[in-house]
């Protein structure tokens, strides 16, 4: 691209040194490797930073190029003249960066077009005057800032585990802790696929300082600009692809090849993005799903629903401090007596009524009612409040022997039982879970919760 | 969610105490009133009043109710321990409960969820990372000494920034200091993840965990292994309050001896140390702080959130420690917070305060915009001594962040 506009109607005069066959797609090489025959131009920083220096005398509007100003002047019915391309052959011009420390300062790394060198200089060495309101990211080039502002906040970032984020920072933090971060598989796959796509991939899986730039594309949002089929995007797909279990390598390799051939952007929501690795621990498949491995699910749900009913029940299992420590220490029998009386059996009736509000949890609770004869409220209270208090040691235990009750609870509430197993507090060997399913899937966040 | 019912045994005529659902209580803030009365009764050693109030609180308290009920529950626990002189034992029990109930998965989920819904911790992260990046700009070998309670969730964004912003990515060594055994086991899971992530980011990275300390006060310069050619940043998030009150000045001196280029400090705004010999004052301040905290949690999480419940439960140790544990020796970490200006006074003996740059302030403002309303940033008053900034929740300052250099 040269500064002069080709006059309308004239034939294009092929410039020596430029690509004679526009139909062939030029392989994109490292920026700043100019044609050795080209003329090297060194513009001053002032010139490079100047924008809109061609001003319309009527309305004052500024233009970056004289040609654009001329075309604008037509609108004011002013005389205009487009410069003609000179008839003799013009050497292609390349531009160097005036900044001495810059890699593009040397003529051998000059950039091929004026707009390019201008933007480069502003971006790298210029003052970042333009700032995004939403995320406070700074830009030196106004068009960059405009382009960013359009999409800022509208992007979505998707982790390999399937979770979607609207915020980049929480996405990054999640990514670092996510179990889907499987680099080892990535390395293996990267090695084998490199050979297939040697032509397009100048992306290497080695760990040099330049990798940061490539890998930052990992955090490119899903809806990134489809025109960016550059090595980083392809690298992104390769990296993501490598999250898949080995058996799907073939399909993915095919997908990749297809995409290259069709020039489809990886980010168009293709198969690679939507697959989640079934082998991966579901660290957080849904940012809103509460943990089911935490034994309190049941208890919390129970109390939540009881709070919808009469307020009575909320008050009944709350004697944590008193049940924990020997009540007799209080020296006031009124208190110890009332502690026991606090443990009413009203909880149970509420469990029954609230079952309709929940799905899987409701089933579990219903089973609880069928299974248990009397419920030891202090046991419930303890489970609810202390999480790990061994119910057997509870001095205020009433009702059935705590062994049986513990057993019932172990059977009925797999999530709780899972927790108790962790503490090695299991009294019996009853590890068969209620629904006849393995612990892993029970503890899968999406399988139990009826209430979110 | 009014959990107060009407079926209280009516002893009010005997003791002269009003029952909770009397007319004057229509604003619903019965918990703070009752709790304060109970604390007063304790300081006056009015035995029957203590018993009565404890009993009433027990009737009304619940960890599953509204904020009043929750506050009543957790503070009742501490008051009970104080009355029965069982604070130490209760604290130890709470520690062992927490150890058993937490796994890496649950803690990870907890803290990430908290950071998603509330800027309580991310505020300090963004401020500190910004200050660290600016202070260490151009350095080739970075060594960050991290003494925090946020389990390395601060570092992924810093790693990303190192990888993408600078032309040449420096080498980063990260030394993480942990004391409580809960965190030690979690660090075993975090280590490989941090290393992997840094590899992916393309940041040359070395990660070390320093555990085995009983108290933060035991930390020494030698054990940290700082080298001459490293540019050092010391990052302290919720760290200073864990140092024994008497040892704090010495701790700052130790940090100074590391010759850091920058020290980033983040603490919660509450004064639980200057009043530690005055039970009522301490109680009031503790209640004030946790009232705000619980309100913030309730507003930030979904009503059925398990994570919120866990966070509330995490407070119980702190509350028991401050109110019922009277600086006993084998206590583990202290929890006596101080306000920003108090920390500033002490820090100024060893360091010079540094203000946050406009860019970092903009980043923080942008961060707060991403959360629900209620949060804001308060910049230091012009001409004031304290250059730290405050995160406020409903106009109340809750977190203080500041930067220091030698």
UniProtKB/TrEMBL annotation, chain A:
<dbReference type="Pfam" id="PF00096">
    <property type="entry name" value="zf-C2H2"/>
</dbReference>
<keyword id="KW-0805">Transcription regulation</keyword>
<dbReference type="InterPro" id="IPR036236">
    <property type="entry name" value="Znf_C2H2_sf"/>
</dbReference>
<feature type="domain" description="C2H2-type">
    <location>
        <begin position="54"/>
        <end position="76"/>
    </location>
</feature>
<dbReference type="GO" id="GO:0008270">
    <property type="term" value="F:zinc ion binding"/>
</dbReference>
<keyword id="KW-0238">DNA-binding</keyword>
<protein>
    <submittedName>
        <fullName>Zinc finger protein MAGPIE</fullName>
    </submittedName>
</protein>
<dbReference type="InterPro" id="IPR031140">
    <property type="entry name" value="IDD1-16"/>
</dbReference>
<keyword id="KW-0479">Metal-binding</keyword>
<keyword id="KW-0862">Zinc</keyword>
<keyword id="KW-0677">Repeat</keyword>
<dbReference type="GO" id="GO:0003677">
    <property type="term" value="F:DNA binding"/>
</dbReference>
<feature type="compositionally biased region" description="Polar residues">
    <location>
        <begin position="9"/>
        <end position="21"/>
    </location>
</feature>
<dbReference type="Pfam" id="PF22995">
    <property type="entry name" value="C2CH-3rd_BIRD-IDD"/>
</dbReference>
<dbReference type="InterPro" id="IPR055187">
    <property type="entry name" value="C2CH-3rd_BIRD-IDD"/>
</dbReference>
<dbReference type="InterPro" id="IPR055186">
    <property type="entry name" value="C2H2-2nd_BIRD-IDD"/>
</dbReference>
<dbReference type="Pfam" id="PF22992">
    <property type="entry name" value="C2CH-4th_BIRD-IDD"/>
</dbReference>
<keyword id="KW-0804">Transcription</keyword>
<dbReference type="GO" id="GO:0006355">
    <property type="term" value="P:regulation of DNA-templated transcription"/>
</dbReference>
<dbReference type="InterPro" id="IPR013087">
    <property type="entry name" value="Znf_C2H2_type"/>
</dbReference>
<keyword id="KW-0863">Zinc-finger</keyword>
<dbReference type="InterPro" id="IPR055185">
    <property type="entry name" value="C2CH-4th_BIRD-IDD"/>
</dbReference>
TrEMBL record, chain B:
<feature type="region of interest" description="Disordered">
    <location>
        <begin position="1"/>
        <end position="28"/>
    </location>
</feature>
<keyword id="KW-0804">Transcription</keyword>
<dbReference type="InterPro" id="IPR005202">
    <property type="entry name" value="TF_GRAS"/>
</dbReference>
<comment type="similarity">
    <text>Belongs to the GRAS family.</text>
</comment>
<dbReference type="Pfam" id="PF03514">
    <property type="entry name" value="GRAS"/>
</dbReference>
<keyword id="KW-0805">Transcription regulation</keyword>
<feature type="region of interest" description="SAW">
    <location>
        <begin position="324"/>
        <end position="405"/>
    </location>
</feature>
<protein>
    <submittedName>
        <fullName>Protein SHORT-ROOT</fullName>
    </submittedName>
</protein>
<feature type="region of interest" description="VHIID">
    <location>
        <begin position="111"/>
        <end position="176"/>
    </location>
</feature>
<feature type="short sequence motif" description="VHIID">
    <location>
        <begin position="142"/>
        <end position="146"/>
    </location>
</feature>
């Amino acid at each position: 691209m040269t500064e002069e506009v080709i006059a309308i109607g004239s034939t294009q005069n092929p410039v020596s040194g430029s690509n004679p066959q526009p139909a062939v797609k030029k392989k994109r090489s490292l920026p700043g490797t100019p044609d050795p025959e080209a003329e090297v131009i060194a513009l001053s920083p002032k010139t490079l930073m100047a924008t809109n220096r061609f001003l319309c005398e009527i309305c004052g509007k500024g233009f970056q190029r004289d040609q654009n100003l001329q075309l604008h002047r037509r609108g004011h019915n002013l005389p205009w003249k487009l410069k003609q391309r000179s008839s003799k052959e013009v050497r292609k011009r390349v531009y160097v960066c005036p900044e001495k420390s810059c890699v593009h300062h040397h003529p051998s790394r000059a950039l091929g077009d004026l707009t390019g060198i201008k933007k480069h200089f502003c971006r790298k060495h210029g003052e970042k005057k333009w700032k995004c309101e939403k995320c406070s990211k700074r830009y030196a080039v106004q068009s960059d800032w405009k382009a960013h502002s359009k999409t800022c906040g509208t992007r979505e970032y998707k982790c390999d585990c399937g979770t979607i984020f609207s915020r980049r920072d929480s996405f990054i933090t999640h990514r670092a802790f996510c179990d889907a971060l499987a680099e080892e598989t990535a390395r293996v796959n990267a090695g084998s696929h490199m050979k297939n796509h040697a032509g397009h991939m100048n992306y290497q899986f080695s760990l040099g300082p330049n990798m940061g730039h490539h890998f930052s594309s990992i955090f490119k949002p899903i809806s990134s600009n489809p025109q960016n089929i550059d090595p980083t995007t392809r690298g992104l797909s390769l990296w993501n692809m490598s999250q898949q279990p080995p058996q799907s390598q073939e399909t993915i390799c095919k997908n990749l090849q297809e995409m290259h051939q069709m020039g489809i952007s990886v980010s168009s929501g293709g198969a690679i993005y939507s697959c989640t690795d079934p082998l991966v621990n579901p660290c957080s498949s849904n940012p809103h799903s509460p943990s089911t491995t935490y034994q309190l699910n049941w208890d919390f749900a129970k109390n939540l629903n009881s709070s919808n009913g009469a307020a009575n029940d909320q008050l009944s299992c709350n004697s944590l401090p008193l049940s924990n420590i020997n009540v007799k220490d209080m020296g006031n029998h009124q208190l110890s007596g009332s502690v026991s009386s606090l443990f009413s059996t009203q909880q149970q009736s509420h469990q029954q009524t609230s079952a309709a509000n929940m799905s899987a949890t409701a089933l579990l609770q219903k089973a609880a009612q069928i299974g248990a004869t009397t419920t030891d409220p202090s046991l419930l209270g303890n489970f609810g409040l202390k999480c790990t208090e061994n119910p057997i040691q509870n001095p205020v235990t009433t009702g059935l022997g705590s062994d049986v009750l513990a057993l019932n609870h172990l059977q009925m509430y797999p999530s709780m039982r899972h927790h108790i197993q962790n503490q090695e507090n299991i009294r019996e060997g009853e590890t068969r879970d209620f629904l006849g399913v393995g612990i892993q899937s029970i503890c899968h966040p999406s399988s139990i919760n009826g209430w979110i | 969610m009014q959990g107060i019912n009407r079926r209280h045994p009516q002893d009010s005529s005997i003791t002269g105490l009003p029952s909770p659902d009397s007319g004057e209580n229509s604003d619903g803030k019965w918990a703070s009133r009752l709790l304060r009365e109970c604390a007063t009764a304790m300081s006056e050693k009015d035995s029957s009043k203590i018993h009565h109030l404890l009993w009433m609180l027990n009737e009304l308290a619940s960890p599953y109710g509204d904020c009043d009920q929750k506050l009543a529950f957790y503070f009742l626990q501490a008051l009970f321990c104080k009355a029965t002189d069982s604070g130490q034992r209760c604290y130890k029990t709470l520690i062992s409960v927490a150890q058993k109930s937490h796994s890496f998965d649950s803690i990870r989920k907890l803290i990430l969820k908290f950071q998603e819904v509330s800027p309580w911790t991310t505020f300090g992260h963004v401020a500190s990372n910004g200050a660290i990046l600016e202070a260490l700009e151009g350095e080739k070998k970075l060594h960050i000494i991290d003494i925090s309670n946020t389990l390395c969730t601060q570092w992924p964004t810093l790693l990303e920034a190192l990888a993408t912003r600078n032309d040449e990515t420096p080498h980063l060594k990260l030394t993480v200091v942990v004391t409580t055994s809960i965190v030690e086991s979690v660090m075993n899971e975090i280590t490989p993840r941090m290393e992997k992530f840094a590899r992916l980011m393309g940041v040359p990275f070395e990660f070390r965990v320093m555990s085995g300390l009983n108290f933060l006060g035991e930390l020494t310069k030698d054990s940290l292994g700082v080298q001459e050619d490293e540019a050092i940043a010391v990052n302290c998030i919720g760290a200073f309050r864990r140092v024994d009150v008497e040892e704090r000045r010495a701790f700052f001196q130790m940090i100074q001896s590391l010759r850091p280029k920058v020290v980033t400090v983040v603490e919660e705004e509450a004064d639980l140390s200057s009043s530690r010999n005055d039970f009522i004052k301490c109680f009031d301040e503790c209640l004030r702080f946790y009232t705000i905290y619980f309100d913030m949690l309730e507003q930030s999480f979904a009503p059925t959130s398990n994570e919120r419940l866990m966070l509330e439960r995490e407070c119980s140790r702190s509350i028991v420690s401050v109110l019922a544990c009277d600086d006993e020796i084998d206590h583990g970490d202290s929890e006596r917070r101080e306000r920003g200006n108090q920390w500033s006074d002490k820090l100024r003996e060893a360091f010079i305060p540094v203000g946050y740059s406009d860019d970092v302030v903009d980043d923080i403002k942008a961060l707060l915009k991403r959360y629900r309303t209620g949060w804001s940033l308060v910049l230091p008053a012009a001409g004031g001594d304290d250059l730290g900034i405050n995160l406020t929740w409903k106009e109340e300052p809750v977190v203080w962040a500041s930067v220091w250099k030698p």
